[in-house]
Amino acid sequence: MINLTLNGLNVSVEEGTTLLEAAKFFGFPILTLCHVDGLSSLGACRLCVVEIGEGPRAKLVSSCTYPAEEGLKVRTASERVIKARRMIIELLLASCPQSKTIQDIASKYNVRQQRFRQEHEECILCGLCVRMCEEQMMAKAIGFRGRGKDKSIGTPFDMRSDVCRLCGACMYICPVCQLRCTYTEPEKAICGGCANLSPPCLEKEQFDDMMCYMSPCVACEIKKD
Amino acid sequence: MGRENRGSLIKSIDDFITMQVRLVTHDNPGIPTLVIPAGTCGQASGANALIRMAKKELLQKKLTDKIRLRITGCHGFCAMEPSVLVEPRRTFYPKISPDDIITIIEAITKGNIVTRLLFVDPETGRRIEKQDDIPFFKRQVRTLIGRNEKVDPIRIHDYIRNNGYFALTKVLSSQKSRLVLEEVKVSGLRGRGGAGFPTGQKWELFASQRNGSAKYLICNADEGDPGAYMDRSILEGNPHSIIEGMMIGAYGTGATEGIIYVRTEYPLAIKHLNTALKQARELGLLGENIMGTDFSFDIGIVKGAGAFVCGEETALIKSIEGHMGEPRQRPPFPIVKGLHGKPTMINNVETWANIPVIMNMGGHSFARIGTQGSSGTKIFSLVGKIKNTGLVEIPMGMTIREVVQGIGGGPSGKGKIKAIQTGGPSGGCIPASRFDLAIDYESLKNVGSIMGSGGMIVMDDNTCMVDIAKYFMNFLKDESCGKCFPCRKGTQRMYEILDDISSGRGSLGSLDLLEELAVAVQDTTMCGLGQTASNPVLSTLRYFRDEYIEHIEKKRCPAGVCKDLIVYYINEHCKGCMLCIKACPEGAITGKKKQRHLIDTSKCIKCGSCKNVCKSGAVELI
């Protein structure tokens, strides 16, 4: 067992526990975006930062990837953490204002404006779809490409992947455009991007054999008709 | 076998000593030698033509017995290349042409020097014969880069003759790996890659790792900072020193395999490294049972694919493993769990090159060079608006002023030196008011910069600090691996704000936002690249905030760099010489002879050609 301090509370956790898991277990919720139980941690969104250490050596680390260490002093909601988190939220809001998930996060942290040039990017490269595809759907059809501002997610050479079963898990897990398949109930749709997409199952005949994450789904509505 | 193998295998330590003694005694140091630096920089400035001419001349005049030719790596004085050093007198001839080399060879045969080709001291106007009397060289302590002159990098015998691999035999014959760890620890050497972690401590930690069978040593030769090339000079000029350093490290820490991770943009370095490794293997200095002992070690080369972030240790390991070069969370540190999940120790090129030096001179003597907390020497690549650009090796603790004025020789143009930038994109700017600062790891950190791998860019008052910050941010937004959202997006947004300011669209509010964002990026990102990405912004904001404010409030760029904020204008001093009219690529200047000319601002592309050609100083920036 490893002993550490969480917001002043002395706790002990099993070896290999991440700070996020420890904090959650002992009742200190930490905001996450790119972390989902059941998928490996990537540490991409950095919303789950917590402050560790003391004095001038104190620093922020992402709690989803940082393992609990003996004697560590962790603060999950110090002023520095909140300030940094709010700046990340502002950046997210500036890049991807249409995501309901991000809007909810912003409202929770009382971030009501963003001061950057407004963009309407969809993908925030949280990597959830990549990990979902690889770890849960066992397909490895999509991955990251490029670096810096040119980084993107897609299939190799942008060609239709042979291993993709069109299961839709990537769309299901995506925090940015979750609501794209409420097409049948347009009042719920926020981005409206789905209107231009053809649901993947329409292109496969034997869709019933596949795992499908979409519900409700425009394709099912069409089939019903 | 009928034919004797020239590179006969060294089977014992005595074998090696015999060979070294033979090499030294058979060498006649009195024979005049033409030493031509032909690193990448030398070749670019024409060293190849010199070498061709020298070879031809020596062969034609049948002088090959009387005058020797040694082609070496970079000596450091890049501003004066192509140059020739004549040993044993150590006469230095800067910036010479292929024809000059004939004159020099002729003079050598007569025992003379060619006075008209000697270096002229810009301060006194006197000619200086010997290299070591030139101010640029005189003030340096050239323990590492000085060896480049002595060694032809593709001849292992050159290296052995100059005491090469002697430190290794010393370590091997002592049969105590503790010796290595103790000497390195006593020496106080700190990592030369930038962070300055005590090398001895790192080695001890690594030596105590018992996780599995394999343990890896890596030489980080992925030098990516713009304007920095000290690692390249060692890789090209003295590859055996790195190999020897790694071997000593392997013996001391029990590592089983070495890898040199070198960027593919250094073809000459890769070539020389490969040659050096091959020669060392042929001699039995690398491989199984080195020099008859039970110590076995080999080194391979991995070429990087051009990502700046792969200089970060966890990204470097991923890259070697064949994955995307992205850093990962530490802990676990590579020392515990690195390449292929095995303990891995990564050191910078310069750190490895220092190891044989330490073993030869002893840790205590090494610790006496430099300052208390930062021992030894450090190579800086001194570039920018300075007279003597090149590689300078100084003991830690020398002041910035001494480097810039004493070694660098002051500004290259008419401008006044305003600041230096150290540490590459992760570093910061240090203003001239702080030039009395003694250079070491802590002092640089205290003023908001870092030692980094050793880039030192000098800036004068024609350099705009907003533009500098924008340049580095542009570099970083392309080179961020993109994994952490705040690093990827934060560098893009910082660039965006800087671009706004430099084109007159900024507001004082955007300055606050910039600062807030810079701190957040520094705080929240995962690896060293992100955590230091804000330094160019924060340090320029700290020391040159008035320049930012002038850009925002007066819409004026004091250095005349930001094109959107400057207007070229011809004042009443114009004599009507029509030079600028001819120089203007856009035909934007009109006017008659002996009448004041006029610039059509709608056509002007602000290239500055008119200002450069004007003899009466009539072209102004407003």
Protein model, in words:
The complex is a heterodimer of chains A (225) and B (622). Residues 179-197 and 206-211 of chain A have low confidence and may be disordered. Chain A has helices at 19-25, 79-95, 100-108, 128-136, 169-173, 218-224, and strands spanning 2-6, 9-13, 49-52, 59-62, 73-75, 143-145, 152-154. In chain A, the strands form two sheets. Chain A has a five-stranded mixed sheet, sandwiched between helices. Chain A has two domains: 2-108, Ubiquitin-like (UB roll) (Roll); 128-224, Alpha-Beta Plaits (2-Layer Sandwich), CATH 3.30.70. In chain A, a hairpin with a 2-residue loop joins strand 1 and strand 2. With 225 residues, chain A is an alpha+beta fold. The relative contact order of chain A is 0.11. Chain B is α/β, with parallel strands linked by helices and 622 residues long. Chain B is built from 25 helices and 19 strands. A five-stranded mixed sheet of chain B has the order 12-11-15-13-14. Chain B has a four-stranded mixed sheet with strand order 2-1-3-4, covered by helices on one side. In chain B, strand 17 (589-590) and strand 18 (598-599) form a beta hairpin. Residues 1-6 of chain B have low confidence and may be disordered. Chains A and B meet through strand 4 and helix 2 of A and helix 18, helix 19 and helix 20 of B.
What is the structure about, briefly put?
With 225 residues, chain A is α+β, with helices and mostly antiparallel strands.
The percentage helix of chain A is 10-25%
> Can you tell me the residue ranges of chain A where pLDDT is under 50 for at least 5 consecutive residues?
179-197, 206-211
The most extensive interface, with participating residues per chain, is: A-B, 36 and 35 residues
CATH topology of the largest domain in chain A: Ubiquitin-like (UB roll)
Amino-to-carboxy terminus distance of chain A:
59 Å
> Could you please say which CATH topology of the largest domain in chain B applies here?
Rossmann fold
If helices are DSSP runs of H or I spanning 4 or more residues, what is the number of helices of chain B?
A: 25
Poorly predicted runs of 5 or more residues of chain B? 1-6
CATH architecture of the largest domain in chain A: Roll
